[in-house]
Amino acid sequence: MNKTKVVATIGPSSQSKEVIKGLIEAGMDVARINLKHADYDFCMDVVNKINELNEELGTHVALMFDLKGPEIRVGNFFNGEAEFVAGTKIRIYTDDTLGDETKLSINYPKLIEDVNYDSLIKVDDGHVVFQVLDKGQDYLLCEVVTGGKLTNHKGVNIPGVRLDIPFLSDQDKDDILLANTLNADFLALSYINTHEDILEVNDLLINMGNDHIGIIAKIENERALEDLEEIIKVSDGIMVARGDLGVEVEVERVPGIQKAIISKCHVAGKVSIVATEMLSSMEDSATPTRAEVSDVANAVLDGTDAVMLSDETTIGFFPVETLKTMEKIIHSAEQDVNYLEFMDKAIRTETKDTTGLISYNVAQTANYLKCKAIFAPTISGYTARKISRFRPSCPIIAASPNLLTVKSLQLHYGVLPVQINELKTFDRIVEASKKMVKDIIETEKGDKIVVTGGYPFKDVKHTNFLKIEEL
User: DSSP 3-state assignment of 77?
Assistant: First the structure.
């Protein structure tokens, strides 16, 4: 099994039960639904299919809902589109002006007040760029810096300008309620600015009585980067959302930012996800480019917990083939991961509590003895998360009687979560570990595994034993 997890976004190309089944069988760990483009009927349909397939296949694919978040968009155009020519002058309004080649509207009432002279207004992920020349009473006069075609409701980014928009809209609050109702496992937050945005969502979940959903903060602008340390503290994980991030900051900065975020998440024991255009050429082609293969491999070598497919599996022609290709790249790259280096970095920043120190010794023992697996029975998943941080070279089989715990571990590096019946005695834990490892992983007589956890199973809140077993 691969240790780096794969998140696949479900969309028009992949919403059929047959394709979702193909994605699961190819190795999808988490299914993502992007609420920017999905209505409630679509969400319920996809969730029902995944639940059915998990039951049929004996899998535990988790669900991630991605919130729309605070955003501004262009309005409507005459005939639905307009072509803008570089060097020409246009006007941008904040009312419902119907757009054409000379004008457009943006749905942000304070646009004229908040932007600066010479500010760049980037539309459709920066495919079309305008520069502010002057301000009228009810419009901005702009020059087209980068020309191109725009269609209705494309997204707008204004780098360096802090927009006065509430983080959670009424729609977002309804979407969080939907995620709660449909038993989502992760909630990805778009366009966050500070850690206070995350705390606002966390408060909503607390009020709903939901302590299960993991919060994934998407880093997409300079302001979030400025508050990154605090954002990591209050999140369960970070997504390097390279699409909007590459529009908001200089695109050449993105690789360095990506590496830094992966490293900071590893030190903090939080999940990291690398997203956007990882295999984008496979939307139309059955094979990736060499640059894309290197991109995925480098994210794996840097120690990311997960990589994500977006348009490749939502509108691409080869969703299952793309995921299979991703898994092949991950498998090859993981042969070159420097596991000892990751372990050394983790122990230098470990808080040195009992679970942390035993987890380190578990990972170190597994590496030195070339163990086939680590077996970690757990109620909450805490032990498995701790061991994952030390990046052992073998898989961590996290066995729990709690289905929510099993699904919450689907994003963690190297963790293979499985649901089991409750284990009450130490001997039963050891015997179950041997059988389960043999069922899951190809083994030979004499192979070793490490068994670890807290015993008595329900009474102890920390890891307190390590045992080496020979198969």
Answer: strand
